[in-house]
Amino acid sequence: MFRRYYLAVHKSVEKRARQSEKARSRNRVWKSKVKTAKAALEKAIEDKKTDLTASLYNNYVSIVDKASSRKVMHKKNASRKKRRMARKINVMGPAT
């Protein structure tokens, strides 16, 4: 279960390895959620589904903000992701 690249000599090193592994698995879950939401939103943008895009964007922003608040990503990284998606939506144009 634990990836060990070296033999830990101190108890604190063993504990830190356990903590890092738990954090890694938690972070992977949130990063996966962000990527899944992004893929769904980009598909809607590509298909020009303006009605669906708004709700998917709100969902994407929510997931990115939650990941940011859980320290999975930096707050400026989260802001950049949201801004780039908003720009893609704005380029798409209003509903026809």
Structure description:
About 75% of the residues lie in helices and about 0% in strands. It has helices spanning about 10-45, 50-70, 75-90. It has about 100 residues and is mainly α. It has a domain at about 30-90. The mean pLDDT is about 90.
Which runs of at least 5 residues are low in confidence (pLDDT < 50)? none
- Beta-strand portion reads under 5%
Oligomeric composition of the shown chains: single chain
Order of helices and strands: HHH
Largest sheet: none
What is the averaged pLDDT score? 91
Tally the helices: what do you get? 3
Q: What is the rounded Rg?
A: 18 Å
Number of DSSP strand runs: 0
Shape: elongated
**Structural class by SSE content:** mainly alpha
Instruction: State the share of residues found in helices, binned by percent.
Output: over 70%
Rounded to the nearest angstrom, the distance between the terminal CA atoms is: 53 Å
In short:
This protein is an all-alpha fold and 96 residues long.
Spell out the key features of this protein.
96 residues, mainly alpha, 3 helices
What is the element layout, followed by pairings?
Layout: H1 11-46, H2 50-69, H3 75-92
Helix pairs in contact: 1-2, 1-3, 2-3
